[in-house]
Amino acid sequence: MYSLAQTLEVSTLKVSDIHTLYYEVSGKKDGSPVVFLHGGPGGGVDTTDRGFFNPDKYKIILFDQRGAGKSTPNASLEDNTTWDLVKDIEKLREHLKIEKWHVFGGSWGSTLSLAYAQSHPNRVKSLVLRGIFTLRNSELSFFYQDGASHIFPEAWDEYLAPIPESERHDMILAYHAQLNSVDEETRIKAAKAWAKWEMVTCKLYVDPAHVAHADDDKFANAFARIENHYFVNQGFMRDGQLLESQEIDKIRHIPTIVVQGRYDVVCPATTAYALKKVWPEITLHIVPDAGHSSREPGIEKLLVEATDSFAHL
Question: Which residues form the active site (predicted)?
């Protein structure tokens, strides 16, 4: 990781009658522009996310997606879809007067990166993706219904706890009801349980400090509500849309590096492998001793190497 780039600008951009995005620009003023797309959806950015990019070569743009982080209104689900976010990325690019930029995204950020690139292929210089997630029903089922539960049974019990037994046949839908309850205590309790399940499972070795993020009411509420909103609506796209050959053909020319943890249970390697099969031109690294997080040492190293390799474009 690089030392954190110097801040050039911190501001907001109104993208609709409802939503205003927080964004920050750092690094080299006339550097090669790169936009960082955070995970979740609903996760928000952190200043340390700048560390994936050489500050002497990149102009680094970080922003919080609708309802996430410092964007307002917090945790809002109104007018919050994949395609609203794709439009927001374009509005931010135009606002910053950038012709083309590199796109970097992990987990949900990889989903959004693919959706954006397929919508605006001529605006993307390169893609660096991590923990591939394409929001197929099979992927959602593995993590939220029957799959990861076999690997983290004790954490799964805590995730099940807020949901009545009669509703556990569809955990995403059951959580949807509680995360949108009129009762604040019900909402926050469900949000923390939802967020904790992901925080526990996202690293090869469970990191108590990372799990503690789920105890933050504001973070958990936005993270859980927005994630669940997207998942209950199947990402507002066709099942498997991002992997369809006619969609991949739109971006086949874009230099792309994918970094995937072998033991990622949040976004299992099968999805990255499926992407490689339909798009053999990409470079796929499967890290043998890593889970889901971009902070896993092997993943972090390869992500930095990937951005270094594209800095000249």
Answer: 107 (nucleophile), 264, 292 (proton donor)
